[in-house]
Amino acid sequence: MSKFSFEILGRDKETNARLGLIRTRRGDIETPYLVPVATLASVRALGSDDLASLGVQCTLANTYHLHLKPGDELIKRLGGLHRFMGFAGPLFTDSGGFQAFSLGFGREHNISKIGNIFPQELSRVGSSQEKKEGIQDEVDCRVENSEGSMCHCSEENEVLDSIDPGEIYKLNYRRDYGENSDDSRKRSGKVAKKGPKIVKKENLTRITDDGISFKSMADGAWHFLNAEKSMKIQSNLDSDIIMAFDECTSPLSDYEYTKKAMLRTHDWADQSIRYHDKNQAIYGIIQGGWFEDLRNISTEAIASQSFDGIAIGGSLGNSKQDMHQVLDWTLPKLDDRPRHLLGIGEIDDIFECVARGIDSFDCVSPTRIARRGSLFLSPESGGSLQNKFHINIKSARFKSDEMPLDPNCSCPTCRTYSRAYLRHLYVCGELSYFRLATLHNLHFMLRFMEDLRESIRAGTFLELKNKWLRTI
């Protein structure tokens, strides 16, 4: 049996936020916690020594991708995932069911978990400069990384670090000074085309009640996963907390399809319990999209099973308000087992979801946006809900800025380097940028989660929330 337990150490008196401790066979996890994502057994740009120095409690790796490369059987022969990646703390693995969405309707619907998981959020208000920078970020993203932008990785085409840094420099140079640059268009009188072109992509999945077939983006071969195989792969990886096999649906899936996928997920949940390695703790996943009756049915079905923890997945609606409503339907019906929200990790979302009773999250956003030039900024240094607590290090205004990235941050990057230097590294495509930026963003979020836990302990959670999310 798995050496797994969860203890609630404290509760906020004004909200449903709770302070907890997850105990596993390889260490404890203080909650609430944002789990860094190590898709391919690596938090991108960092080594296990970096994770230790940052105080990372646990990470989450991807079952589907590790099955494809280097192979779960090889990892097992090499002593398991902990030994393979040199990380001693607890490890989560997802089941591979997320790729049903990211390789399937997510591609068809052009929906992603960073940027546009919530379709209505695309039209939310923001300054013209913010919108311009947002569009440019998408362009830069495509230059630097031809993968999608799904928060459990759009791990589907993890090619960023394989691009030669010299090529990034050339592409950035052509963007800024080439014949299609803004400057060139001004000189020639050409009018820039408005908005990014939306391209419908091929659905790379085939889903039946028996399981999911995936078409590899590497070689075009088809691979099949079902609950039994997912449990076997996760057993070979020897992670500590695993996810039941499920089908993650799109926000644009209709009621009938969402219901069909939910019922499949319930059948696969039964099979996951039957086949999973009893040395591993297992979380069941509630589905049902943003349909209240389906969420209620799925909550009852998953909560009635003998899972060690409960995860909430699938489509969370068309807006953040829809996500809050989904949680309000779901969380009051759950018992005191740990609750994990899949694929969410922005600061405002963490506050709102912790206030409703979520204990842990996973998201690639902090590390991915770092690689794309968006670096976290605390409220004391100018971070706000309006700028999403980011600065865009690509901006020319930082070219000669001698200030540290965030004067209130104690990470190695902020203690040593200036904004001007980081911008220089980014625009030149220097590999050291990716490590320094990732160190900062991950340190920032880990310290943020520490402050959040301390606020629950001290009874000042709402005070901290109001400090961060004030709109003036």
Topology:
Blueprint: E1 5-11, E2 18-24, E3 27-31, E4 33-35, H1 48-54, E5 59-61, H2 63-68, H3 72-77, H4 81-85, E6 91-93, H5 99-109, H6 128-144, H7 165-177, H8 182-188, E7 205-208, E8 211-215, E9 222-225, H9 227-237, E10 241-243, H10 255-275, E11 281-286, H11 292-303, E12 309-312, H12 320-330, E13 339-342, H13 347-356, E14 360-362, H14 365-371, E15 374-376, E16 390-392, H15 412-416, H16 419-428, H17 431-458, H18 461-469
Parallel strand pairs: 4-14, 5-6, 6-10, 10-11, 11-12, 12-13, 13-14
Antiparallel strand pairs: 1-2, 2-3, 7-8, 8-9, 15-16
Features:
single chain, about 475 residues, alpha/beta, TIM Barrel, eight-stranded parallel beta sheet, three-stranded antiparallel beta sheet, 16 strands, globular
> What is the CATH class of the domain at 5-104 and 219-367?
Alpha Beta
- The side-by-side strand order for the widest beta sheet comes to 4-14-13-12-11-10-6-5
Cα Rg? 22 Å
Helix coverage percent:
40-55%
Summarize the structure.
This protein has about 475 residues and is of the alpha/beta class. The chain has helices spanning about 50-55, 65-70, 70-75, 80-85, 100-110, 130-145, 165-175, 180-190, 225-235, 255-275, 290-305, 320-330, 345-355, 365-370, 410-415, 420-430, 430-460, 460-470; strands at about 5-10, 20-25, 25-30, 35, 60, 90-95, 205-210, 210-215, 220-225, 240-245, 280-285, 310, 340, 360, 375, 390. It has a domain at about 5-105 and about 220-365: Alpha-Beta Barrel (TIM Barrel), CATH 3.20.20.
